[in-house]
Specification:
The structure holds three protein chains of three kinds. By secondary structure, chain A is an alpha+beta fold. Chain A is built from 15 helices and 17 strands. Chain A has helices at about 55-70, 170-185, 225-245, 290-300, 305-315, 320-325, 330-340, 360-385, 395-405, 415-425, 430-435, 445-460, 460-465, 470-485, 490-505; strands spanning about 5-15, 55, 70-75, 75, 80-85, 95, 105-110, 115-130, 130-135, 145-150, 155-160, 200-210, 220-225, 255-260, 265, 280, 285-290. In chain A, strand 9 (about 130-135) and strand 10 (about 145-150) form a beta hairpin. Chain B has a domain at about 1-45: Orthogonal Bundle (Histone, subunit A). Chain B contains three helices and three strands, in the order ααβαββ. In chain B, strand 2 (about 85) and strand 3 form a beta hairpin. Chain B is flat. By secondary structure, chain C is an alpha/beta fold. Chain C has a domain at about 5-260 and about 440-480: Alpha-Beta Complex (Amidase signature (AS) enzymes). Chain C has an eleven-stranded mixed β-sheet, sandwiched between helices. In chain C, helix 5 (about 155-165) packs parallel to helix 6 (about 180-185). Chain C is globular and about 65 Å long. Classes of the chains: A alpha+beta, B alpha+beta, C alpha/beta. Chains in contact: A-B, A-C, B-C. Strand 10 (about 145-150) of chain A pairs antiparallel with strand 3 (about 85-90) of chain B. Chain C: This is Glutamyl-tRNA(Gln) amidotransferase subunit A. Chain C: Keywords: ATP-binding, Ligase, Nucleotide-binding, Protein biosynthesis, Transferase. Chain C: Belongs to the amidase family. GatA subfamily.
Chain lengths: ~500, ~90, ~475
């Protein structure tokens, strides 16, 4: 990034829907979708006279997220009203937290190509989601009218606000991925971005290298996929850079990514002069969190991505890069751990100086094999299918079954690839596929020697080439032998016997 | 602290109230009278006083995370000024 | 037998003795409504059929020899800001002229369970903002004692209906005096309970931290009976108090000998009509005769109650009333091109002048740069006002004052000057700010108009307020007088 003439300064506001069963202030389901206005009751519709009652689980989840993000949990916290008019907001105020959020002052460590970096978390607060608008005529801008559906209204959210510590698009993505992993690990959110349950806003400004003061920022709203985040940030950075290069001034405003046009557009209008008139929500009472409550939630925290990352490196000897990729997704990390268990990779009963129980070298080699398959072929296949590791058709047990056949020399690595594809398509065990298709590797020297002799006999001119020193000839013979054995011949044995046969001629 | 007509118009915009010129003039006068009256609060030193948001000191009032049936769609949209296929229909947004 | 003139506890006796039927009782009230409603105009909506059906259910129960509850078969009516499932709830506003709630307020549910037939919904100042019921979008309600005078407000319809014999009891809401002041003007009993004692769920919000629902009744015993039915913890209202609720009739009839009654000097100063002052003096003598010790006391921050109230209440109202935007229910203006124009026109056309005035005031008080000077400051002074009461109740069992410095005033006499209208609430606002209970009873008459006597007690001390009021009522008998109407 040094060649870029400006320093990029970014902060992210991540909104995550919580995994509660019911909404934040009423008993309506939080289930995604549903026919319009069927997950709605008088309370979340904001009918005259209704009152909110806070879902305890929202507080628990917010505390869990706060602790997992290394925040301090507030002893005294309260809700406030954020007042603004919009047809997706039934009460014309969003019940949110203003000056006393539930959690503050945390951090996460992210890893990028530049190494590890700490990003500060300013605060985590609880609030309610808004409804959905369907725009007659497609897009918001071209619509003649809109239709409001309040199913999503009052689904609980946490907003995670970062410090302006992010200095590149890569860091922004890594940060978002890391926070997503933490939310998944803790079970606080399902993080289904395609359903809008994880999305973010970004504050972006540029400044000349070395300048202390921040530049004028724009706020980029509502990015709900990593692809959008990347494209929108890249566009916005370049947009601001162009303005500054031309000696212009960036306008402080809210902008939105327009995916169809590939640009960010201003949301400014004369009615947009926001003054949210926050004040304490009189219909809800304060939340007082005891030390005991915090301790209880802390004790229930699962192993978080960082700890898991360290464990995979220490116990299985995985490269940090592999461990990082695997632990960024809870499903992938769970898959890895399950595969290791099935492979019988036993960490030593005695912990090392750092407190880790390491596997022996054989175990580490096996773990690396698992990791290679997961990060390579398996990731490619599930991504193509738009799936996650949680719905992978090859179970961790079956993957290990394949690796065991390979390790025992029952199949060649080339055959393993075919078997793997079949396993993915059918969900069958490797052993079954190998038997059904007769794919067991031929290592019998007598059988292979016979085939080698036949093929060498049939190709005297290639033998002549070989004798003339053309090394390519060997490749030709190996190819022919493999073809004749349908790839089942043990390559090591083939090489050895072929060389002996040719030298004999 | 005196409220100008421009400020009254700004407040009306925040409150989404279309006011006539006469109303703006009237509210400017009336709000100033009420705010003048409220000036007497400034005589009190409240630097050491905590604000009262709730008179009854309750905290941690929660409900359990239990799903209850929602209301049927027909009842939800029954009062809608304009309804379309179970949605609330509104004029264009931008 | 004038059934419409009797209190619930007497009518209950007649029902149990089978001297009357619940159907006769409802019919008597429907007849009374037909007779006096053209003059009084208390009702927004009438629900005669449902009331009769409920009365028949009660009669069947009595006929079957089953016991009935104290309010079972007793006809009642509700202020039109209490949501009633399937029955229009307008808040006397054009904004909600056609709004039919799909749910019952908690108090409505409780009274349905108590078996009280609902006669209808009662007129009020629009969204409970006002002190005269002149702010109803539809029509003003008249004071049954003098049809040229206001019934008070904002629960004017609820007070007038009980005073005129159009319901045995009713419920209203009180944010700054909206039960007590009309009760005083109409010569009936009206109580604003302790904040949190009665669920607000289903009460269309005006100022959430001040609003309370309470009863209008003919006498103190009825007030206690209705409180028994409506008070209690409600899991649907986060501000509902999770305390043990008493039998509100338990202390009725017990002596108040030796009680210390404080009379705040700040409530007896300028603006107090001589006729009202005379009634209060006489009432103090009655309490002395009952064995209580009456002393002057001080609530030093009283003069700040009005500005504090008129910052906090409009601020909360500006937010509570933002949901009336023409999208989901109620009025929507015609011919708006886009959403912002629709919002602005709808709200401009749907709200009346007083509501808009308070929305403007509250929006301003919360707006950027003014929050600390107005809203936060008001909340801090609210603390001081509450402390005044805490200190007073260390010395006194209850505080006694006029409910209003004046008797009911003629229509139109205060509509030009909002501040003058606000000043008529000066004796009642503080109880809402402090969250304490306030009870208004008929303390006597000045120039033929009833004068309200206000008793305030510490939080959750309603049984003792009722005890003292009952003693006064039994001693004086003013509550037995009814206005001459339709005769």
């Amino acid at each position: 990034m040094q060649e870029f003439e400006f320093e990029i300064v970014m902060g992210l506001e991540i909104h995550s829907e919580l995994a509660t069963k019911s909404k934040i202030f009423c008993g309506c389901t939080t289930e995604f979708g549903g026919e319009q206005n069927t997950h709605v009751c008088p309370v979340c519709l904001g009918l005259p006279g209704v009152l909110p009652v806070l879902n305890r689980q929202v507080v628990e989840y917010a505390m869990t997220a706060g602790l997992a993000l290394n925040c301090t949990i507030a002893e005294f916290s309260k809700f406030d009203r954020k007042n603004y008019f919009y047809p997706d907001l039934p009460k014309a105020y969003q019940t949110s937290q203003y000056d006393l959020p539930i959690a503050e002052k945390g951090w996460v460590d992210i890893t990028t190509s530049q190494g590890t970096k700490r990003i500060g978390i300013t605060r985590v607060h609880m609030e309610e989601d808004a409804g959905k608008l369907v725009h007659g005529g497609g897009t918001l801008a071209g619509a003649g009218y809109s239709l409001a559906d309040y199913n999503r209204t009052a689904v609980p959210l946490i907003e995670i606000v970062s410090e302006p510590d992010i200095r590149s698009v890569e860091e922004a993505i890594a940060y978002m991925e890391h926070v997503k992993a933490i939310l998944e690990y803790t079970g606080v959110s399902d993080c289904k971005m395609e359903q809008g349950s994880l999305r973010c806003d970004a504050n972006i400004s540029l400044r000349p290298w070395g300048q202390k003061e921040f530049g004028v920022r724009s706020e980029l709203k509502n990015m709900n996929s990593f692809k959008t985040l990347q494209k929108a940030l890249e566009y916005e950075i370049e947009r601001q850079a162009e303005i500054l290069r031309d000696g212009g001034v960036v306008v402080q405003e809210t902008r939105m990514w327009d995916d169809a046009k590939g640009v960010t557009i201003s949301l400014r209008s004369k009615e947009e002069a926001h003054d949210y008139r926050y004040f304490p929500e009189p219909d809800l009472v304060p939340i007082i969190i005891s030390r005991e409550w915090v301790d209880r939630v802390r004790a229930a925290l699962p192993e978080l991505p960082e700890a898991r990352h360290e464990r995979l490196v220490a116990a299985y000897g995985l490269p940090s890069y592999d461990a990082g990729i695997i632990t960024d997704s809870k499903a992938m990390a769970d898959y890895f751990d399950a595969a290791c268990r099935h492979y019988g990779i036993e960490p030593s009963p005695i912990a090392d100086d750092d407190g880790y129980r390491q596997a022996d070298q054989q175990g580490k080699d096996r773990a690396k094999q698992i990791s290679n398959y997961m990060m390579g072929e398996l990731t490619r296949l599930v991504k193509e299918d738009g799936k996650g590791f949680e719905d992978c058709p090859i179970s961790p047990e079956n993957l290990v079954g394949l690796l065991q056949l390979l390790e025992a020399g029952t199949i060649s690595s080339k055959i393993a690839k075919t078997v793997f594809e079949t396993m993915y398509a059918t969900g069958k065990e490797a052993k079954v596929i190998v038997e059904e298709k007769g794919l067991v590797q031929i290592s019998d020297e007598g059988a292979i020697a016979k085939i080698v002799a036949e093929i060498v006999d049939k190709n005297p001119n290639v033998v002549a080439d070989y004798k003339a020193g053309k090394e390519k000839a060997v490749g030709f013979f190996v190819g022919q032998i493999m073809k004749a054995t349908k790839g089942k011949a043990n390559p090591g044995v083939v090489n050895q016997l072929l060389k002996a046969e040719l030298d004999r001629r | 602290m005196s409220l100008t007509k421009a400020e009254v118009e700004h407040v009306a915009m925040l409150a989404r109230l279309a006011l006539t010129d006469d109303e703006v003039a009237m509210y400017t006068t009336q709000l100033n009278a009420i705010l003048d009256y409220a000036q007497r609060l400034e005589a009190l030193d409240t630097s050491a006083v905590a604000p009262t948001a709730h008179v009854f000191p309750l905290h941690n009032v929660f409900r359990d995370d239990v799903v209850r049936p929602s209301m049927e769609q027909a009842k939800i949209v029954a009062n809608a000024p304009e309804e379309e296929d179970g949605f609330f229909r509104v004029p264009r947004i931008v | 037998m004038k059934l419409f003139a009797k209190p619930a506890h007497e009518l209950h006796g007649l029902l149990v003795q089978k001297e009357i039927t619940a159907t006769e009782l409802v019919e008597a009230h429907l007849g009374r409504i037909d007779t006096v409603e053209p003059q009084v105009q208390a009702y927004m909506t009438r629900t005669a059929e449902a009331a009769l059906a409920e009365a028949q259910r009660v009669d069947a129960k009595v006929a079957a020899g089953e016991a009935i509850g104290p309010l079972e078969g007793i006809p009642m009516a509700l202020k039109d800001n209490l949501c009633t499932d399937g029955i229009k709830t307008t808040c006397s506003s054009k904004m909600l002229h056609n709004f039919v709630p799909p749910y019952d307020a908690t108090v409505v549910k409780k009274l349905k369970e108590a078996g009280a037939p609902l006669l209808g919904k009662l007129n009020m100042d629009e969204f409970a903002m006002g002190s005269s019921t002149e702010n109803s979008h539809f029509f003003p309600t008249k004071n049954p004692w003098d049809l040229n005078c206001v019934p008070g407000g904002s629960s004017g319809g609820a007070a007038a209906a009980v005073a005129a014999g159009e319901a045995v009891f009713s419920l209203g809401s009180d944010t700054g005096g909206s039960i007590r002041q009309p009760a005083a003007f109409c010569g009936v009993v009206g109580m604003k309970p302790t904040y949190g004692a009665v669920s607000r769920y289903g009460l269309v919000a005006f100022a959430s931290s001040l609003d309370q629902i309470g009863p209008f009744t003919r006498d103190v015993r009825d007030c206690a009976l209705v409180m028994n039915a409506i008070a209690g913890h409600d899991p649907l209202d986060s501000t509902s108090a999770p305390v043990a609720y008493p039998d509100y009739t338990a202390l009725l009839g017990q002596s108040i000998k030796g009680w210390k009654i404080g009379v705040p000097k700040e409530y007896m100063g300028e603006g107090l009509e001589p006729g009202v002052a005379a009634v209060i003096d006489k009432a103090l003598q009655v309490f002395c005769d009952l064995g209580a010790e009456v002393q002057e006391c001080t609530l030093p921050h009283t003069e700040y109650a009005l500005p504090v109230y008129y910052l906090i209440a409009p601020a909360e109202a500006s937010s509570n009333l933002a949901r009336y935007d023409g999208v989901r229910y109620g009025y929507r203006a015609e011919g708006a091109d886009d959403i912002v124009e629709m919002f602005k026109k709808t709200r401009a056309e749907g709200f009346g002048a007083e509501v808009k005035r308070r929305i403007m005031l509250g929006t301003y008080a919360l707006s950027s740069g003014y929050y600390d000077a107005y809203y936060l400051k008001a909340q801090k002074v609210r603390t001081l006002i509450k402390q005044d009461f805490d200190q007073a109740f260390e010395r006194f069992d209850l505080i006694l004052s006029p409910t209003s410095p004046t008797v009911a005033f003629p229509f139109g006499s205060r509509t030009d000057n909002p501040l003058a209208m606000y000043l008529s609430d000066v004796c009642t606002l503080s109880a809402n700010l402090a969250g304490i209970p306030g009870l208004s009873i008929n303390g006597g008459f000045a120039g033929g108009m009833p004068v309200g006597l206000q008793l305030m007690g510490k939080a959750f001390d309603e049984p003792r307020l009722l005890q003292a009021a009952y003693a006064f009522e039994q001693e004086t008998g003013y509550h037995r007088q009814m206005p001459q109407l339709g005769e």
